[in-house]
Write a structure and sequence with these properties.
Elements lengths: L26 E4 L5 E6 L5 H10 L2 H8 L8 H8 L6 E8 L20 E12 L2 E8 L8 H15 L4 E6 L4 H9 L5 E5 L2 E7 L4 H23 L3 E5 L8 H20 L3 E5 L10 E4 L11 E4 L3 H12 L5 E4 L9 H16 L3 E3 L5 E6 L2 E6 L7 E8 L2 H14 L3 E6 L8 H8 L7 E6 L5 H12 L4 E5 L22 H9 L2 E3 L2 H13 L7 E6 L2 H13 L3 E8 L6 H13 L5 E6 L8 H14 L2 E6 L10 E3 L5 E3 L6 H18 L14 H15 L7 E2 L2 H9 L8 E4 L2 H11 L3 E5 L13 E5 L2 H14 L12 E5 L5 E10 L3 E8 L2 H6 L3 E3 L5 H9 L18 H17 L3 E12 L2 E4 L2 E5 L15
Parallel strand pairs: 5-6, 9-10, 9-12, 10-11, 12-13, 13-14, 17-18, 17-19, 19-20, 20-21, 22-23, 22-24, 24-25
Antiparallel strand pairs: 1-2, 2-3, 3-4, 4-5, 6-8, 7-8, 15-16, 15-18, 26-27, 28-38, 29-32, 30-31, 30-32, 33-34, 33-36, 34-35, 36-37, 36-38
């Protein structure tokens, strides 16, 4: 699914008292069958469309919805149904088709414009408090596509935003489909039958099962939408005509036509062409004057037109039942505001017609499926068939990437260039590759990631059974090329790296490394471990390889076999067999660099045979060999060909092998279960935050700081206790506070620069009596005399003394791009100056939490470093887990900091916490496509 971009802020009531239209609820979605549709709140001007929808319904559908025969909606009822307040009465409609754009915008000319029509309605009416009655009605022609399930998801989200927590419904017993929609949504449904009607009740707060159901439905829908593109058998090429505005458009169309000709001639693909003069008289190609003349149905269309003409073409393609549109043209979002408006109109047309969009500025797609090749790309020659799925974005970068694939002899199952990824993105392809039996390895060249939170979830699911190798543009992954829609981010540059690591993604530095890693994963079994043996032609080479292997994270066991360059065949065979017979060997690195530079086929043959027979992962660096070659290929015991990949340099070989070994270790490790601490009440947390946002009038997105009492109450909803403290002005108040809290106490300044700085005298610990306290108060006040703690803030704070331990910091921040970003580190200047912090993006598993706590370089201090006592790390992990659950559940929690969190041998003490809240719009809260 396409990466999401910011939407208008959530709307409340307008200043006039009239209900504001909640534009943020609009969404384009993928349905169960892979087609698309648009959801939006109902509007008063929908009256005619709603009446037309009702009249078109079958008698049975009308009876199941209204419990009575009703040929037309009475005007009074129709008025009530389309006039809602978007608070206590909410209705969402699913619509197909697109209204004609306003005059003066691109695409206002003629065209096969499909009037917007309603194909589904979902509504709720609040009955009391947090309960609302729901009803659904789906067009007969669109039943069975999962439309009711999608509407339920979005209606429940809107209801929760308005304070509704429970849905009730009355359903006739014969309406089995609707009952299944409720039961299959993952909520705990309660039902009883009364007077011949089934009364259904269920809470709509997300549960572990409901979230899993939503993710699984999204996965299957997006996978099907990609399968429809990659297995298309009826294709239409739309070119610029005999007099193109740009010669490049005509050249692109001719190149695509050339790629289609083999499939057209052998009959495996039905090819239609419009506006491609060279197609006339070509065997197997059906040439038409206009798009309207093309017989339906058509599975996939490739469009090479000036940007101004694409919208009209897309409208006409919708009438042919096209499931996907590959757009090679540019001139959209990268061309400025006018181009962005043009792209928004195009997405509305495409999604309203049930299509997915690949592009703009795509290099095209190539798919090998069931012995046939679908080549809709600008490549001069399609890549050879194989078992690698390859995704890239902009067209220019696809050129060297595919050239490198060809040079290495790699084979692809599919290649997709998403261009500016206005719709189809790497997430969609990963969903497909998770289901595709013809793909073993996935490689992605990403110039931008519009929805890292969803990327993490989808990649983690895929990486559990297939390797995912990624290279990003720039180390931070936060480059935004022209034409790409990406939210701004405040997250540290390391955040994406941590997201990928926790997801099991293999991240590499460049295109060269991408293919280095892919070729070993595609042609060798996964490493069983990191124990490495070396076959080399000299001791000096072996030493260099051993050093490189250690740097790549491999473990050199000491098994090194030297093979002189003029060794006879028998010696070659014996040496290789001895190396592979070692039970302490998991992987093998073979480096053959003869001084005369002459290839040695005997070594290659014996190495390939032994590697295939043993199942040990092997890489090679041999003169004259590069990539995937027949010289290093041999069958394994099952008869499957296994090729030892050849590299240009030993360092490249061991680096790729190290990545493969780490991935194999990650995949073989239990990744845990989502953290679900006891005593968590996120609903109470939501109510508290909503109340503070309302009191703070946070309508412009500015953060509202919470008071100490509010922060303590917020953390208490997830079972985190903040030690109480008392702020005071002088020694007398400090002594009184200590008497209430109990001796010994800690006293500290409230000046931000000195607040946690015991080393500078801003904190005094283990204060045992009044005299000592008065002396410490005087010293702290003198130290802070030149600092201002802030308006109305007392200069001192007194707190009961916590057990001694190691102070840590736990933070969470809501980022527009990443969503909640959790960080953990040990307190101190070194941590801040050196960036010794671990990051994670919730939701987290218990294994993720354990890794986050152990990742900082200073973490050994928690585990008995240099004689220190072992600390209660389990209690610390519990606090981190609870903070992650809170951050995941509350998008409006802008920032949260727990500092210090003192970890002792017998527990943890949270001695301070601050937080702020602000309205947020999380990117992947619901299934939706980008609308730019």
């Amino acid at each position: 699914m396409a990466d999401d971009v910011p939407r208008p802020p959530r709307s409340g009531a307008a200043d006039t008292g009239a209900p504001a239209y909640p534009a943020a609820w609009e969404a384009d979605v993928v349905l169960h069958d892979g087609s698309t549709t648009r959801l939006r709140p109902i509007r008063p001007e929908d009256a005619d469309a709603l009446q037309a929808f009702h009249v078109a319904q079958s008698e049975r559908s009308t009876f199941l919805r209204f419990f009575a025969a009703l040929e037309r909606l009475p005007e009074r009822d129709l008025h009530r149904l389309v006039h809602v307040d978007h608070v206590d009465r909410v209705a969402l409609v699913a619509v197909a088709g697109t209204p004609r754009p306003a005059a003066g915008t691109d695409g206002d000319g003629g065209g096969a414009d499909a009037p917007e029509r309603i194909i589904g309605v979902a509504r709720y009416d609040r009955v009391e408090g947090e309960s609302a009655e729901v009803a659904f009605n789906i067009a007969d022609a669109h039943q069975g596509k999962g439309l009711a399930s999608v509407l339920l998801e979005h209606l429940a989200a809107a209801a929760r935003e308005r304070g509704v927590r429970r849905f009730v419904a009355e359903v006739l017993p014969q309406n089995g489909r609707m009952l299944h929609v409720f039961r299959d949504a993952g909520y705990e449904v309660r039902q009883r039958t009364e007077d011949g009607v089934v009364q259904v009740t269920f809470d709509i707060d997300p549960t572990e099962r409901s979230l899993a159901v939503m993710a699984d439905r999204e996965h299957r829908a997006e996978a099907r939408s990609m399968r429809a593109l990659l297995t298309a058998r009826r294709v239409l090429l739309v070119g610029p005509g005999p007099q193109p505005e740009r010669a490049l458009h005509a050249a692109h169309a001719e190149r695509v036509l050339g790629g289609l000709l083999p499939a057209a001639r052998d009959g495996s693909t039905t090819v239609h062409a419009v506006g491609v003069p060279t197609a006339a008289g070509t065997d197997g190609v059906h040439v038409h004057e206009r798009v309207d003349d093309v017989p339906a149905p058509v599975d996939l269309a490739v469009v090479v037109l000036p940007a101004e003409q694409v919208l009209d073409a897309a409208r006409r393609l919708g009438a042919l039942g096209v499931r996907g549109l590959v757009l090679l043209s540019s001139g959209f979002a990268e061309a400025g505001p006018e181009g962005l408006a043009r792209l928004r109109l195009l997405l509305g047309v495409v999604h309203g017609a049930g299509m997915r969009l690949v592009g703009p500025a795509s290099f095209g797609i190539v798919s090998h499926h069931d012995g046939t090749t679908l080549d809709l790309s600008l490549a001069e020659h399609p890549p050879r068939p194989g078992r690698i799925g390859l995704f890239s974005q902009s067209a220019p970068l696809a050129v060297p990437l595919l050239a490198a694939v060809e040079r290495r002899g790699l084979g692809l199952a599919q290649f997709v260039s998403a261009g500016h990824r206005a719709d189809v993105s790497g997430n969609d392809l990963m969903q497909f590759w998770g289901e595709d039996d013809s793909t073993d390895v996935v490689a992605l060249y990403l110039e931008s990631i519009g929805n890292p939170r969803k990327f993490s979830r989808v990649a983690r699911r895929l990486a559990a059974h297939k390797p995912v190798v990624v290279v990003t543009a720039g180390r931070s992954g936060q480059v935004v090329p022209p034409g790409h829609a990406v939210r701004p981010t405040r997250a540290p540059r390391r955040t994406l790296e941590e997201v990928m690591r926790l997801s099991g993604v293999i991240r590499v530095e460049n295109q060269h490394q991408l293919l280095d890693v892919v070729q070993v994963l595609a042609h060798q079994p996964l490493p069983a471990g990191r124990r490495t043996s070396i076959l080399a032609s000299s001791a000096s080479v072996a030493a260099l390889v051993a050093e490189a292997a250690a740097a790549a994270g491999l473990v050199v066991t000491g098994r090194v076999e030297l093979l002189v360059e003029d060794a006879p065949v028998d010696e070659v065979r014996a040496t290789v067999e001895r190396l592979y017979a070692d039970p302490q060997t998991d992987v093998v690195v073979a480096v053959r660099l003869p001084t005369l530079g002459t290839p040695d086929p005997a070594v290659a043959q014996e190495l390939a045979r032994a590697a295939a027979a043993s199942g040990r992962t092997t890489v090679a660096c041999m003169v004259g060999l590069h990539g995937i070659t027949d010289d290093l290929t041999a069958p394994d015991p099952t008869g499957r060909p296994r090729t030892v990949p050849a590299y240009s340099a030993p360092e490249d070989a061991v680096l790729a092998l190290g990545h493969a070994a780490r991935y194999a270790a990650w995949r073989g490790t239990d990744r845990g279960r989502p953290v679900r601490p006891e005593g968590v009440d996120t609903r109470a947390a939501e109510r508290l935050v909503a109340a503070r946002l309302a009191a703070g009038h946070a309508t412009d997105g500015s953060p509202v700081p919470l008071s100490s009492a509010d922060v303590a109450a917020l953390l208490a909803t997830v079972g985190v206790h903040v030690w109480p403290s008392v702020r005071v002005h002088d020694a007398d108040e400090a002594v009184a506070a200590a008497e209430r809290l109990g001796w010994p106490v800690a006293v500290k300044t409230t000046v931000p620069a000195l607040r946690h700085r015991a080393d500078l005298g801003g904190v005094r610990l283990d204060v045992a009596d009044e005299a000592e306290l008065r002396s410490d108060v005087a010293g702290i006040l003198a130290l802070a005399a030149g600092h201002d703690p802030g308006p109305g803030v007392p200069p001192l704070e007194v707190q009961a003394m916590a057990p001694h331990g190691v102070p840590c910091v736990v933070r969470s921040a809501e980022d527009p791009l990443f969503g909640p970003v959790l960080s953990f580190g040990l307190s101190g200047d070194a941590t801040d100056l050196l960036g010794d912090v671990a990051y994670g993006v919730p939701p987290l598993t218990d294994v993720d939490v354990a890794e986050i706590v152990r990742t900082p370089r200073a973490a050994p201090r928690l585990f008995g470093y240099r004689g220190l006592p072992l600390l209660d790390v389990a209690a610390l992990e519990d606090v981190v887990a609870r903070v992650s659950v809170l951050a995941d559940a509350l998008p409006d929690l802008r920032a949260l900091e727990l500092a210090p969190v003192v970890v002792s041998p017998a527990g943890v003490a949270v001695l301070g916490a601050t937080a702020s809240v602000a309205p947020a719009d999380r990117a992947d809260a619901l299934r939706r496509l980008a609308r730019t």
